[in-house]
Automatic annotation (TrEMBL), chain A:
<dbReference type="Pfam" id="PF01891">
    <property type="entry name" value="CbiM"/>
</dbReference>
<keyword id="KW-0406">Ion transport</keyword>
<keyword id="KW-1133">Transmembrane helix</keyword>
<comment type="similarity">
    <text>Belongs to the CbiM family.</text>
</comment>
<dbReference type="InterPro" id="IPR002751">
    <property type="entry name" value="CbiM/NikMN"/>
</dbReference>
<comment type="subunit">
    <text>Forms an energy-coupling factor (ECF) transporter complex composed of an ATP-binding protein (A component, CbiO), a transmembrane protein (T component, CbiQ) and 2 possible substrate-capture proteins (S components, CbiM and CbiN) of unknown stoichimetry.</text>
</comment>
<protein>
    <recommendedName>
        <fullName>Cobalt transport protein CbiM</fullName>
    </recommendedName>
</protein>
<keyword id="KW-1003">Cell membrane</keyword>
<keyword id="KW-0472">Membrane</keyword>
TrEMBL record, chain B:
<feature type="transmembrane region" description="Helical">
    <location>
        <begin position="73"/>
        <end position="95"/>
    </location>
</feature>
<dbReference type="InterPro" id="IPR012809">
    <property type="entry name" value="ECF_CbiQ"/>
</dbReference>
<dbReference type="InterPro" id="IPR052770">
    <property type="entry name" value="Cobalt_transport_CbiQ"/>
</dbReference>
<feature type="transmembrane region" description="Helical">
    <location>
        <begin position="102"/>
        <end position="120"/>
    </location>
</feature>
<dbReference type="GO" id="GO:0043190">
    <property type="term" value="C:ATP-binding cassette (ABC) transporter complex"/>
</dbReference>
<keyword id="KW-1133">Transmembrane helix</keyword>
<keyword id="KW-0472">Membrane</keyword>
<feature type="transmembrane region" description="Helical">
    <location>
        <begin position="140"/>
        <end position="159"/>
    </location>
</feature>
<dbReference type="GO" id="GO:0006824">
    <property type="term" value="P:cobalt ion transport"/>
</dbReference>
Length: 226, 244
């Protein structure tokens, strides 16, 4: 769910861009440092961005009978950490605006704040909390992906409510309206995205365990004793 | 064919050889007009201008433009309708100026979306990315974005191939199988993206290119006639929008 071009007034578009900017700049600085120290990681970071874009093209069987698409930022936050996702998410949103007509250019800041900043940080927070409470990788990933999706949707509803307050009840009434309307698709999608995350990471633990160990998501397997 | 209709249209557009800066100026001006001018007649003029330019001189297929507009249209329709429904003590009702408010909101959004789509369907991303350097975006970030752009087509092709194979093996015949297949599909695409990046890096390192993918950007000269026509057209839209 991205806010379409021209849907936000100029002041709101500028305000959300300024709000997202520090996080995106921080992510960009991390990427610049990473590329300077290890130039070979340019391609890995590019691959991570491409994967996030492509993940949004995976169709999820929907509870309503239709199909929907994940945001992918929860998985990205667990794999690559939220600061990097702030930049990669913004790049993906720019590509979605210009290659798929999802979102827009003046609404890029608002969409980046919701999907590339709040979503990954909320999802990563949920992941860390579940792991700290003794949960395994898969419950943590479920929480990360579901919470990232829900946080993105709640933030977008809040942005719309601030821009388009209800004629009688103001911003709170508008927030209830937007949350209710988009809940029909977004709540099932959040659960679906959590399930997809579990299936994705279960497949990765079998097929790409060394990569997950290198990213610090799994403890290194002990050397076999002779 | 890349598999993304908007990107295909951009590469095939009659405006492909025009300077990206010229097109950015025109489309940026149209987006600005769509936001700042009153919906009537400003947004209508902006929307019509963008559609006529895309389907006329830029020769973007009408089907591609129409299909691309469907996505923002769905969001705009739901969002505009929701914004004019009031939640009061007496239940749901319409805002006093519901039609005008919804029309204005939809007008601004549709006109802005059409202007962005004009840019998207006439300018490939690889032409726009070098322009980011002009906005003082660090070279490393632009390079990551360029790699993302190039890799996503490879991954989209992998996604389609794997999904086709899964479908042929009844991978989506029941909801449970569909979920399992979707998870395996995402995992396969991720591991392929890592593998592809690693092999590309090894290939580049073997050729001594260890500090980045340096390429010569294609020089597309600016057209004074195009710039003059754009400025005149934008000035006319502003004048008409403010006069009403």
């Amino acid at each position: 769910m991205h806010i379409a071009e021209g849907f936000l007034p100029v002041t709101h578009a500028v305000g959300w861009t300024l709000a997202a900017a520090p996080f995106v700049v921080h992510g960009a600085r991390q990427v610049v440092t990473e590329v300077r120290e290890r130039p070979e990681n340019t391609l890995l970071l590019g691959a991570a961005g491409a994967f996030t874009f492509v993940l949004s093209a995976v169709k999820l069987p929907s509870f309503t009978g239709s199909s929907s698409h994940p945001t992918g930022t929860g998985a990205g936050a667990v794999l690559f950490r939220p600061p990097v996702m702030a930049l990669l998410g913004t790049i993906v949103l720019l590509f979605q605006a210009l290659l798929l007509a999802h979102g827009g250019l003046t609404t890029l800041g608002a969409n980046a704040f919701a999907m590339a900043v709040v979503g990954p940080w909320a999802g990563y927070g949920a992941y860390r909390l579940v792991r700290r409470l003794g949960g395994g990788l898969l419950p943590g990933v479920f929480a990360a992906m579901a919470v990232a999706d829900l946080a993105t949707y709640v933030t977008t509803a809040g942005q719309l409510a601030l821009a388009l307050p209800d004629a009688e009840t103001g911003v709170p009434g508008a927030l209830v309206k937007f949350l209710s309307v988009f809940a029909l698709t977004q709540v099932p999608l959040a659960v679906g995205e959590g399930l997809l995350g579990v299936l994705l990471f279960r497949a990765l633990t079998v097929n790409a365990r060394p990569e997950l160990e290198r990213l610090g998501l799994l403890a290194a397997a002990p050397e076999p004793t002779r | 064919m890349t598999g993304l209709a908007v990107d295909d249209a951009a590469w095939a557009s009659a405006w492909r050889r025009r300077s990206p800066a010229d097109k950015l100026l025109l489309c940026g001006g149209l987006v600005g007009c769509a936001l700042a001018l009153p919906a009537w007649p400003g947004s209508v003029l902006v929307g019509l201008t963008a559609v006529v330019l895309a389907l006329g001189p830029a020769r973007v297929p009408a089907r591609t433009f129409g299909r691309a507009v469907r996505w923002p249209l769905a969001f705009i329709a739901v969002g505009a309708l929701t914004s004019v429904v009031t939640v009061g003590t007496g239940g749901l009702g319409w805002a006093p100026d519901a039609a005008a408010r919804a029309g204005s909101l939809a007008g601004h959004a549709l006109a802005g979306s059409a202007a962005v789509l004009l840019l998207a369907t006439t300018t490939p991303m690889s032409d726009l990315l070098p322009a980011l350097r002009g906005l003082r975006v660090p070279a490393a970030v632009v390079e990551v974005a360029a790699v993302t752009y190039r890799l996503l087509f490879v991954l989209l092709a992998s996604l389609r191939t794997i999904r086709e194979a899964q479908t042929a093996r009844m991978g989506y015949s029941t909801p449970a199988r569909g979920w399992r297949s979707s998870g395996a599909l995402a995992a396969a695409v991720l591991t392929r993206s890592w593998d592809r990046a690693r092999r590309m890096q090894e290939g580049l390192a073997g050729r001594g290119m260890e500090s980045g993918l340096r390429v010569l950007p294609e020089v597309l000269p600016s057209s004074p006639a195009f710039l003059t026509a754009s400025a005149t057209g934008l000035a006319a839209i502003v004048a008409a929008g403010l006069a009403a």
